[in-house]
Amino acid sequence: MKYAMLVSLLAAISTNATAQNADRMNMAVCLDASFVKGFAVFNEFMEEWKKEVSHLSALDAEKYEFAGRDFRKEQMVATGNDRNTQREENWNSRNCKRFLN
Fold first, then answer.
1. What is the pTM of this model?
2. What is the DSSP string of 48-95?
3. What's the angle, vertex CA 96, arms to CA 99 and CA 42, rounded to 5?
4. Are 94 and 26 in contact (CB under 8 A)?
5. Which of 34, 57, 37, 64 lies closest to 47, judged by CA?
6. What is the pLDDT along the chain (101 residues), one digit of tens a residue?
7. What is the Cα–Cα distance from 27 to 47, expressed in whole angstroms?
8. How many C-beta atoms lie closer than 10 Å to residue 19's C-beta?
9. Contact between residue 37 and residue 88 where contact means Cβ atoms under 8 Å apart
């Protein structure tokens, strides 16, 4: 009985952590995409990003940030899009505005 409860609890924690990681990765892609909207939007997005990763170590926060950039670069290779076109597509397809206040 205790084992089943522990397994259920660990599964719930793992699912929650996975969802948080997916959201954070999505936000990292949007942070990269925000460059295409100009410095004002990028700076606003960067403030939201700092809030999102404030509890992480600087190294872990940078890993997510660079993963967002790397994802865009992989998309560019796959699609043949230039940087700004891919950023614009990511901004729109991921509804990045939702992260801004």
1. 0.80
2. HHHHHHTTS-HHHHHHHHHHHHHHHHHHHHHH---HHHHHHHHHHHTT
3. 80
4. yes
5. 34
6. 555 554 454 444 445 557 678 889 999 999 999 999 999 999 999 999 999 999 999 999 999 999 999 999 999 999 999 999 999 999 999 999 999 97
7. 12
8. 10
9. no
